[in-house]
Design a protein that fits this description.
- By secondary structure, the chain is an alpha+beta fold.
- Helices cover 32% and strands 27% of the residues.
- The protein has 11 helices and 22 strands.
- The chain has a 7-stranded mixed beta sheet, with helices on both faces.
- β9 (169-176) and β10 (179-186) form a beta hairpin.
- α1 (7-24) packs antiparallel against α2, α7 runs parallel beside α8 (250-260) and α8 (250-260) packs parallel to α9 (304-314).
- The chain is globular and about 75 Å long.
Length: 410
């Protein structure tokens, strides 16, 4: 094999060997026992040689030529993703997207959308956004971006084309009352609301958290204040809807839990480094002053959602209603690399206040109520139907057995 190995691959082999030896000769930051060094060194050489052999075979014999940089990036992706389903190598674009999702803002046209049977529907244009100013309406169907029809098999790509640099132009074609209309607009920075509220009456509120970003706790606090004002300061209970919430920023989950707790542990975590081992506790002050609280969860409630549900359940602060949660009890840390890249690496396992790990288990609701067909997806799309949504109906019944069946949207 050596005599056929290209100079590029030979050079790469030297780099790989250096990397493998560099990591292989240290454990936990300290040097390994000298007696173990020969075996470790031999193993490192063998692994590096295997890597170079596979690389050369792919370069020579794969049906199409592949650039060295593409092969190496694929190798890095495979190395990280093979650790667990949640660890991931992020190129510059992927790293930018993950920063957008956690910051609560992005550059685009400002529409909330949802997909049904391959059709991209507009939930609502965000107030003051380019989409709102151009006349896009709730219920419109997005059918093309810059003249390119949407790909029903890759709607995420279409959503990505709606984004771009602030000030750049984009043409969005929508279907409104069976008429195709082109809307030309310029992208701008959009603040994404992760919290949506509704007053249920006579003195109860509903808040849905769609994800946990840096701004979520602040948004939730304002939403509760608004509901209190609507109820003339007499809010008697709240439904906190975490269904189909995939999670997000851990600190945001801690802050949200802290809003409803006066004391006690919120979450603990254990890992191999000092930074990965921590415990977060609640501060004095319950934003609801002890009013009844119901948390709605289902199989789509994961990660940060489970931290909140677990903390409120373990402290007997809330009744958890729905179906068992997803069961993601691992913490990922995003670590920046050179040239705008990063890795998202699992660094900790977290535990609820009772000391339980919910990984691959989830949180069992206090009251099991099956998902109603069509819900909560329709709830997430802005449709709040307390008669059709069995889980929501049960939550309201718990808060107020004489609950009214009409609401005032906020």
């Amino acid at each position: 094999m050596d005599e056929f190995m290209s100079l590029k691959v030979r050079a790469l082999l030297v780099v790989v060997i250096g990397l493998v030896l560099g990591t292989g000769l240290s454990v936990g930051g300290g040097l390994i026992d000298a007696r173990q060094a020969p075996d470790r060194e031999a193993l490192a050489w063998e692994q590096a040689r295997l890597f170079a052999e596979v690389l050369e075979r792919v370069k020579q014999d794969y049906v199409e030529p592949i650039d060295d940089a593409v092969l190496l990036e694929s190798a890095i992706r495979g190395m990280v993703s093979d650790l667990d389903p949640h660890s991931q190598y992020l190129d510059a674009n992927e790293y930018r997207d993950i920063r957008v999702s956690t910051s609560g803002s992005y550059t685009g046209i400002g529409v909330e959308v949802y997909e049904v049977d391959g059709v991209l529907h507009v939930i609502t244009p965000i107030a003051g956004s380019p989409a709102a100013r151009s006349g896009i309406k709730a219920g419109d169907q997005i059918i093309a971006v810059d003249g390119v029809a949407i790909d029903t098999k890759n709607l995420q790509q279409t959503v990505g084309r709606l984004r771009g640099h602030s000030g750049t132009k984009v043409i969005v074609t929508v279907l409104h009352d069976d008429t195709a209309i082109d809307h030309e607009m310029r992208r701008q920075t959009i603040r994404v609301a992760s919290v949506h509220k509704e007053f249920l009456g006579p003195a109860f509120g509903y808040i849905r958290v769609s994800q946990f970003s840096d701004n979520t706790a602040r948004e939730l606090g304002r939403a509760v204040d608004d509901l209190q004002e609507t109820a003339a300061g007499m809010l008697e209970g709240l439904v906190l809807d975490l269904r189909n919430n995939p999670g997000g920023v851990l600190d945001a989950a801690v802050e949200v839990s802290d809003l409803f707790l006066d004391h006690g542990v919120i979450v603990t975590a254990d890992g191999r480094t000092d930074e990965s081992r921590f415990a977060h506790t609640a501060h004095h002050g319950d934003i609801l002053d002890g009013a009844n609280l119901v948390v709605l969860v289902n199989g789509g409630s994961a990660s940060a959602s489970e931290i909140v549900a677990g903390a409120l359940q373990d402290h007997d602060r809330a009744l958890v209603v729905g179906t068992p949660t997803f069961g993601k009890g691992l913490v990922q840390t995003v670590m920046p690399l050179s040239k705008g890249r990063a890795i998202k690496l699992t660094t900790s396992r977290y535990f609820t206040p009772s000391g339980d790990s919910i990984h691959d288990v989830g949180i069992e609701p206090d009251l099991f109520i099956e998902d109603t067909p069509g819900f909560p997806d329709l709830t997430l799309a802005g449709v709040l139907d307390r008669e059709a949504d069995a889980q929501l109906a049960e939550a309201i019944e718990y808060l107020n057995p004489r609950s009214v069946m009409h609401s005032n949207a906020q």
